[in-house]
Amino acid sequence: MIVETRGLEKRYGPHLALAGVDLAVPRGAVYGLVGPNGAGKTTLLAVLAGLRVPSAGEVRVAPPRGRVALLPDTPQFEPWLTGREVVALARRLVAPGVPVAREERVLADAELSGAADRRVGGYSRGMLQRLGLAATVVAEPELLLLDEPASALDPAGRREVLDLIAGLRGKATVVLSSHILSDVQEVCDTVGILREGRLLFQGPLHDLLVGRAVPAYLLRLRPPVGHVADALRAKDWVVGVDVLDEQRLRVSVRSLAAAEWLLPEALASCDARVVSMNPQAADLEDVFLELTS
Ligand SMILES: Nc1ncnc2c1ncn2[C@@H]1O[C@H](COP(=O)(O)OP(=O)(O)OP(=O)(O)O)[C@@H](O)[C@H]1O
User: Fold this and answer.
1) Considering Cα of 44, then 49, then 53, then 59, what sign does the dihedral take?
2) What sections of the chain are H helices per DSSP?
3) Which of 179, 209, 239 is the last residue of a domain?
4) Which terminus has fewer CB within 10 Å in the chain: N or C?
5) Residue 105 predicted with pLDDT over 80
């Protein structure tokens, strides 16, 4: 493990922001820390970065301080510096031994070569976030702590930042916090679900999804749907039926394969008028809601 905490607590006055966190980040992972607002994500990253002192518990971060980099959620730079100067300053301050050519490389990776000589005061939010990542990786850190790296961006900006993070796989260990679960599902291999300062789950994303995946069909029908829901609930191959609204049912089944041939027959026999019928794989959003609600 590149990062481990045991019984980590952080108090702000009477408020317990971290309530006994046992974090375990495998070396090389892209670890997604997810949780609702106020769960303690920023606090946990700040403790790992050494910016906040824990109130109790142990923290072990394997790389030395100079090889750990934190990108805050809204990176701020002196507005009169150019993008190139920001990256150069970061390299010179943190890792003067890293060749100067690396500055050009990280600017190019962040697609900022063309804007590198403009003052950052005129950069868009997405450009600032990409510049933040460039300045964070220029010193070749072993461990990157990224606080909500893509959350404030539009879809195109998010795409670019997610691609940059995906490109770090194999080069560094990344711990990122996010409340955009589809982003985490896309780029992370390991997740920790934090709520009210406690880790509710931690482990490979795959285990989380597969362990909890109840196969289901999403049905869109012409209303009314109540009698269809009742008829399906009576079937022994149906685990449960949720009426989502006046047109949609979520039918959890024992197996998608069995439902493929039993569901059309069951719908026909209760005169259901089917608009669409789609199998649903469990996604992080479902599991997150189940764990945090
Ligand atoms: N400096 C502080 N003083 C007092 N309370 C704080 C301080 N920083 C955070 N908190 C409280 O600690 C809890 C955890 O906050 P934190 O910012 O770590 O959560 P978060 O998961 O990052 O939330 P968000 O997604 O909203 O950024 C919250 O209840 C917050 O109000």
Assistant:
1) positive
2) 41-48, 83-94, 101-109, 125-137, 155-166, 181-187, 205-212, 226-233, 256-269, 284-292
3) 209
4) C
5) yes
d(CA 194, CA 44): 10
Whether residues 82 and 193 share a domain: the answer is yes
Query: What is the number of domains present in the chain?
Result: 2
pLDDT confidence tier of residue 285, bands split at 50, 70 and 90: confident
Average of pLDDT values for 148-175? 86
Q: What gap in Å lies between CA 90 and CA 205, rounded to an integer?
A: 33
Minimal-distance CA residue to ligand 1 atom 7: 12
Mutate to test the pocket of ligand 1, among 18, 37, 43 (most ligand atoms within 8 A of CB): 43
pLDDT of amino acid 284: 73
Q: In angstroms, what is the span from residue 58 Cα to ligand 1's centroid? A: 20
pLDDT at 211 > cutoff 60: no
Q: Say how many residues make up the chain.
A: 293
Question: Which residue's CA is minimally distant from atom 6 of ligand 1?
Answer: 12
35 lines ligand 1 (CB under 6 A): yes
What CATH number does the domain containing 11 carry? 3.40.50.300
Q: What confidence tier does 283 reach under pLDDT thresholds 50, 70, 90?
A: low
* Token code pair at residue 277: 């019928």
